[in-house]
Amino acid sequence: SFFTHFSRAHAKELGNPVPSKPILFFKPTTAYITQGQAIKVPLGCTSLHHEVELGLVIGKTAKSVPESEAMNYIGGYCLALDMTARDFQDFAKKNGQPWTLAKGFDTSCPVSEFIDKSKLSDPSNLQIWLKVNGQTKQEGNTKDMIFSLPYLISYISNYFTLEEGDVILTGTPEGVGPVNPGDKIECGLADIISMSFSVN
Known about the structure:
Layout: H1 8-13, E1 32-34, E2 48-50, E3 52-58, E4 74-81, E5 84-85, H2 86-94, H3 100-104, E6 109-111, E7 115-116, E8 127-132, E9 135-141, H4 149-157, E10 167-169, E11 177-179, E12 184-189, E13 193-198
Parallel strand pairs: 1-6
Antiparallel strand pairs: 2-5, 2-11, 3-4, 3-10, 4-7, 8-9, 8-12, 12-13
Pfam family, one: FAA_hydrolase
Catalytic activity: oxaloacetate = enol-oxaloacetate
Keywords: Metal-binding
């Protein structure tokens, strides 16, 4: 299960109002890929965008968790890409439709290896970056996210029971943009972890 929210700068660049509550959507397990597998442009998509994000990996069942206890439910972290069919999303937003096709297609969630909690002393202050074909496109810090990590876990767990292994994507810095077949995406969290994916 996957959920996400945006940074203020990212909301602004897409012309969206800054949300007062997290905007939630799901990605199915078939969206997951790991390094060595390729990101595939979904059928009919003409504008596939990259969004690099910190992922929270849930460590134990969480239901209606208070913010004060929320960090105890994190098992670890990962680096993730929220690949978005922007043309599908724009059409859905314009017509009041769900974002399922835009966000949940096969290969839409490349993830890194699991990052142990001990390696991230302060997950709310982490540099995050992304390059396409060697050119820096996104560079930001997790401190710029609209909602804190404890708030996200608490808010989501009031509506959805979070289970061990679930991942919450926490939002992307500004600089999202298109990728095309043949492109190479590289991204990382500070100097802790990096990953790369080709687009087919």
